[in-house]
Amino acid sequence: MINMKKNNGNGNDKNNNDKSFISETKSQPLDKSYRNPKYVKDEEEIIKTIFESIPKESQITTARFEGPNIALYTKNPRFSLTELTYYLSSLSKNLKKRFVVKSDQSIRLKEDETRSIVSRILPKDVVVSALFCDDATGEVVLEVNKPEAVISETIISIAEATGWIAHLRRSPHIPSLSIKNIHTILKSSSKERSNFLRELGKRVFREPLIMKEDETQKGNISERTLLNNKQNKTWNNKEVYIFCLGGVKQVGRSCFIVVTSESKIMLDCGINPGENNSIDAYPRIDWFDFKLDELDAIIISHAHIDHQGFLPTLFKYGYDGPVYCTEPTLPLMNLLQLDSIKISQNNGVYCPYEIRDINEIIKHCITLPYGKPTDISPDITITLNNAGHIMGSATVHLNISGAHNILYSGDYKYAKTQLLDSAVSNYPRVETLITESTYGASSDLMPDQRVVYNSFTENINKTLTNGGKVLIPVPAVGRAQEIMLVLDKEMKEGRLIEAPIYIEGMISEASAIHMSYAHYLGQDVRRSVSQGINPFQSEYFTVVNGWGKRDEVLKDPNPAIIMATSGMLEGGPSVEYFKEIVTQENNKIIFVSYQINGTLGRRVLDGNTNEVSMMEKNGKVKVIPLKCKTQKIDGFSGHSDFNQILNFVSRIKPKRVLVNHGERTKSENTASTIYNKLGIRSSVPDIREILKLR
Ligand SMILES: [Zn+2]
User: Fold this and answer.
1) Would you identify the CATH topology of the domain 449-636?
2) Distance 303 CA to ligand 1 centre (A)
3) 433, β-bridge pairs
4) Chain segment 259-274, per-residue pLDDT in tens
5) Separation of 304 CA from ligand 1 center, angstroms?
6) Is the pLDDT of residue 670 over 50?
């Protein structure tokens, strides 16, 4: 099943036959046999136990495995959302399963009726801006101006009166198109998703394929082992392997597969935006005899494209399993995926997927809140926790049969920022930690926040005083919102000279998503949001929409600050501003995010060139002189600096560390320092390396 081909170790095995491995993967026959395991853990018996243990008043009509939970359908939501929960919590402990209460189909009202009843039940000062009834989950999603004003008794009354269990979100200051689009897809696919959740439930709770040792000795192994005739009979059920497909000795295309005797779980699935050749740009799924159909799940740590940009391609080529991520990651990821298509079209570059592939992700996505352990396969339970990197970013904890625990850090910030709290680091047990090392050189130390802000404002002030414009290229998700908060605060408190702040690109849409999921933001922002303050709106901000307005901004002789996407000058309005801004000596470009090798941002920042060639709208190449000043301010990064990485590792106290997501020398420095200073076995894997963790 898995070809344990020996790693050649160099990670550079270039294959110039671009895109070849994608079509190879597609041509592999999809083996669905394992998808219908005969031995689903005796569902009937479990359901019988449930019905015997719960009171009749709950009026549960159906109980069945659905996705990672056991779903109970009730005709008495009041009882089921209150008294039944006591019974369920002890059942949950005994059965080691999680429950989700849904309303029985027969009691659910139509959306229109639900809308009018909901507005009657909600407190007078709570206004509904959007409402969406999801047949697959039995939930009515309510976007309201004051979610904190809706108490649980109100939720119960809504369920009783409408047959829908309310799920609250905050109304954003401007309607989010991504969230609206997601609702449309979900609505049109409710039947399909119900079936998907049902099938997934059977798969997650299937009987283990490999017998436990004591059972093996009883001599009843043969039949069950044969369930999967490809499964190696000699496989030791304690073994855990990790396959490195990307994001090692580099920043970009993060991707691992964790393989146990029971499961194959993909951790992240990114692209490398600095590479054009697919062999270097995408995870190396071509490398071993790997079938998409054998994956039990894909977990996405956060929305940045170097962690999820290859996901639509996997759906295009046959993946149809679950994708787990946090609630805000889904719309943020959707926004960035749709934008990648747009950027490819604008630049005349090949994009390996289409909108329909992105829509498939929405249908297969299971969003999880922070801190909720969730079974995703017979032997793996995952828990997502705040990683402090961007909104919804998560560290992924995998508990494998209670015997081995992996913590995959994704990208993380082990310090508080304006926008987010510090990454969670209290884990009772972690055997293997996979840590990022973006800032893994010993000299990668970020100054105090105040020092960073002072240098940021001083630099901007200098340019504004000289009558120049400051261009801040920002990634739409995360850094943009952080910088907005900082600029507003510094201007309000008088340290930054007052000037218009123009904002263009997907920043407004991303900020709307941030407002919808404000409960995922840091404590300070959450507090001000609950007091009715919108941190992403300010008297200084002007949103720029379209070419005409952009030209006005550029032609205006007055000093100004411009924030535009993308953050690495790889497409988007920041490139259009860049073309004009660089030609004037009194202007300045300030980079506030990591610049991946190969991007225009990195080339400009490295200062290796005093001119750049750029394609004009008419297809002609224009050489533009680089006259303005450029600067990088590191302290805004959503990544941990060197000391923060070491602090995080020493707090986690793993037995072993794998260092990824860093340029080779930085990762190696991180690994050797962890070993020398903390005495923890530590290494930097190669691409196409298989590590045995246990
Ligand atoms: Zn990231």
Assistant:
1) Rossmann fold (3.40.50)
2) 7
3) 407, 657
4) 998 899 999 999 998 7
5) 5
6) yes
